[in-house]
Amino acid sequence: FSKRxxxxxxxxxxxxxxxxxxxxxxxxTVDLLGEFIETQQEAEANKxxxxxxxxxxxxxxxxxxxxxxxTMFGLLFDKEICYTHIREIVKFAVEKNSFVRIDMEDSQxxxxxxxLFQKLHKEFPKNVGLVVQSYLRRTLSDLEALxxxxxxxxxxxxxxxxxxxxxPEKVAFKNxxxxxxxxxxxxxxxxxxxxxxxxxxxxxxxxxxxxxxxEQYQVPKERYEFQMLYGVTPELRQQxxxxxxxxxxxxxxxxxxxxxxxxxLKENPKMAQQIIKALxxxx
Length: 283
Ligand code: FMN
Hints:
alpha/beta
């Protein structure tokens, strides 16, 4: 049953799922599922896996890019090594004419992930993007601070999502409506400033308001796309595509995780929410 939300265990299964989505007029962003890591060997192994993934997916001409989580490369125990690994991945993606998205993790990672992004953006301005989370109180001011690195020739590229981690009230909005309002405020900021925006949500209310803002700001097609997780709300996904908007699906796959999570998760109405949690929260 988890096959609905995870493309499989191997690169080959990830490829198959991605090609299928490509045929249905969707792009992908491919994510290798990882577990909590503690050693440099594990960080290195994850880097090598990503290089292999980029090699295979570009060789097979999948239309898409790659998403990664910096903690899989040692962000929390050695940010310099983490930077070196991710730089190597981005450099390889550049050679393959591709793009790497840095996922945003829990609030203890945010400063480091922004710093990482800034460094990489400086060197590879067209090939790296970051995620921002509308539930964080700091997000709009982070975007304002990053604005100085934005230009018409090398626009910043963000994925906007609500945020999935359990955060204290001090750092994150807790109220559902409040998170939605901040999402729209952040989205408006991104559109107003001409930044490239991945609208990552399955929330119909946000999707409809995004349509309204796209219209209002006359956002050109190459400046935005919708993004959804593999297997989640396929009907809404199709409605967005039918309206002529670009859609990118986040395709997760991986071996250890797959075994682990299928044991842990039970099929129930909150399945999608549980899966999303399990995709982003390790340990
Ligand atoms: N949540 C994060 O905290 N960090 C991420 O990097 C992240 N990436 C996401 C990518 C995509 C394509 C989507 C659809 C969601 C992502 N999420 C991420 C999860 C969202 O923050 C959110 O928890 C989830 O989409 C449920 O909210 P929704 O009702 O707006 O869909």
